[in-house]
């Protein structure tokens, strides 16, 4: 798993969305980890 840099998201929304398809996204917030595909 690698952390995506801010500039990854600073592109065209459709390009970013296509590249995220099938990826597992994780978010750590207030000590809890949230995940989704």
Condensed summary:
This protein has one domain.
Describe this structure in words.
With 37 residues, the protein is an alpha+beta fold. The chain has one domain (6-36). Helices cover 32% and strands 27% of the residues. The protein contains two helices and two strands, in the order H-H-E-E. It has helices at residues 6-9, 13-20; strands at 25-29, 32-36. The chain has a two-stranded antiparallel ribbon. A hairpin with a 2-residue loop joins strand 1 (25-29) and strand 2 (32-36).
Number of domains: 1
Order of helices and strands: HHEE
What share of the residues does DSSP label as strand, in percent?
25-35%
Low-confidence blocks of residues: none
Shape descriptor: globular
Helical percentage: 25-40%
| Number of helices in the DSSP assignment | 2
> If strands are numbered along the chain, what order do they take across the biggest sheet?
1-2
Number of strands: 2
